[in-house]
Specification:
Number of domains: 2
Order of helices and strands: HHHEEEHHEHEHHEEEHHHHEHEHHEH
Number of helices: 16
Strand order of the largest sheet: 10-9-6-7-8-11
Shape: globular
GO molecular function, one term: tRNA N(6)-L-threonylcarbamoyladenine synthase activity
Keywords: Acyltransferase, Metal-binding, Mitochondrion, Transferase, Transit peptide, tRNA processing
Organism: Sarcophilus harrisii (Tasmanian devil)
Bound molecules: 5'-O-[(R)-(carboxyoxy)(hydroxy)phosphoryl]adenosine, zinc ion
GO biological process, one term: tRNA threonylcarbamoyladenosine modification
Number of strands: 11
Oligomer: single chain
CATH architecture of the largest domain: 2-Layer Sandwich
Enzyme class: transferase
């Protein structure tokens, strides 16, 4: 101990517990000492209260998430005031859990990044209010995050891909195709004209009363449809493909949902069952709906790839398509998109499943990306507002429409 004392320059008269405390302060935390950027990300835009601490290499130091899915499944959809209440009850616990798992104190953070757009107003408000309080308490920079931009850049945690690349975001609230030119630089090629595919699948799952089926009762609608579809034959039903004659990259799902609804009502009559009971042909309907959704998404994505290649935005031989968002966890949809990327010499990249759905990691990572690029860092929280509606990037969908690219048919 004497030698150690000499080396460390500790006076010899220190008590044992003091020496222990002194040595502890020298404990080597490579992830803390060598890296100087640590961002806490907070996500409350919809029905997940999530947080994470990520460093500039994409290392996840800690994370926590509270999902409201089970509660909303029981009420048959998200009730904003219920979501708000659940965010309020959980946000502090989730942030504390995240920090304690990370082994860091708020003082060690470089910045706090929080989703402020787009999303449910009441949900966004909880995250923003809590973050503002943290930011002011610890005097940290604040980085407001666009939820869809965060989804789009998540892939760069796991794959070091360069800009530009093409991204398809498909979730419960969104459906869009965009070129990612930089951290805050997006060109919107097309989006859903009505509802998002996840929302549509959730509605079909509810209409099929899958919540009453023990195997699917705790799954999100989209996941339940994917699992049920494995036992069905898609050829037993034939739904019209949306926007078949529109040569653009927009999407539409509400017409398909109405058609499926009508079909379910007709089958209920034929089978003589009441609304709420499970149809014998539910698996066939699930398979046909999933196929129609996958084909529609694939067709629009195919056109987007051809457009980017034609305009020289993506190199014909080395283009990257990134697919993310909750619906991107659907393996049938991924397989369908693989057919498209193979046919167009593209590389298909999807973040790991848990990063496809809403999470705090993608928000913290977007904060890191912005911090490194010196973009959107605020040192004053005054006047920051959440924005329930906020388009992504510069809309060039008119140019896509004018190009009117005919997509060759592929065997899906
Ligand atoms: O990205 P996300 O977690 O939240 C937002 O909507 O932003 O996506 C949730 C959506 C839900 O609509 C859910 O039904 C859908 O993603 N989803 C799926 C699957 N897993 C989740 N849709 C199709 N197949 C799945 N395996
Ligand atoms: Zn999302």
């Amino acid at each position: 101990m004497l030698t150690l004392n000499k080396i460390l320059g500790v006076p010899c008269r220190l008590a044992k517990w003091q020496i222990h405390g002194f040595l502890k302060s020298f404990t080597f935390h490579p992830e803390k000492q060598l890296l100087h950027k640590l961002v806490l990300g907070i996500e409350t835009s919809c029905d997940d209260t999530a947080a994470a601490v990520v460093d500039e290499t994409g290392n996840i130091l800690g994370e926590a998430i509270h999902s409201q899915t089970k509660v909303h499944l029981k009420t048959g959809g998200i009730i904003p005031s219920v979501a708000q209440q659940l965010h309020r009850e959980n946000i502090e616990k989730i942030v504390k859990e995240t920090l304690s798992a990370s082994g860091i104190t708020p003082n060690e953070l470089s910045a706090i990044a929080t989703t402020v757009k787009p999303g449910l107003a009441l949900s966004l408000g909880v995250g923003l209010e809590y973050s503002t309080q943290l930011v002011n308490q610890y005097k940290k920079p604040f980085i407001p995050i666009h939820h869809m931009e965060a989804h789009a850049l998540t892939i760069r945690i796991t794959n070091k891909i360069d800009f530009p690349f093409l991204v398809l975001l498909v979730s419960g609230g969104h459906c869009l195709l965009a070129i990612v030119q930089g951290v805050s630089d997006f060109l919107l090629l097309g989006k859903s004209l009505d509802i998002a595919p996840g929302d549509m699948l959730d509605k079909v799952a509810r209409r099929l009363s899958l919540i009453k089926h023990p195997a699917y009762s705790t799954m999100s609608g989209g996941k339940a449809i994917e699992h049920l579809a494995k036992q069905g034959n898609r050829l037993h039903f034939d739904f019209r493909h949306p926007l078949h004659f529109c040569r653009n990259c927009d999407f539409s799902f509400s017409g398909l949902q109405t058609a499926v609804d009508r079909m379910i009502t007709q089958k209920e009559k034929e089978e003589g069952i009441e609304k709420g009971e499970i149809l014998s042909c539910a698996a066939d309907i699930a398979a046909a709906v999933q196929h129609t959704v996958a084909s529609h998404i694939a067709k629009r994505t195919h056109r987007a790839i051809l457009f980017c290649q034609q305009k020289g935005v993506l190199t014909p031989s080395n283009a990257v398509l990134v697919v993310s968002g909750g619906v991107a966890s659907n393996l049938y949809i991924r397989k369908t998109l693989e057919i498209v990327t193979k046919a167009t010499n593209c590389i298909l990249l999807c973040p790991p499943l848990k990063l496809c759905t809403d999470n705090g990691i993608m928000i913290a990572w977007n904060g890191i990306e912005k911090l490194c690029a010196g973009l959107g860092i605020l040192h004053n929280t005054e006047g920051i507002r959440y924005e329930p509606k906020c388009p992504l990037g510069v809309d060039i969908s008119k140019q896509v429409q004018e190009a009117a690219i005919k997509v060759p048919s592929l065997k899906i």
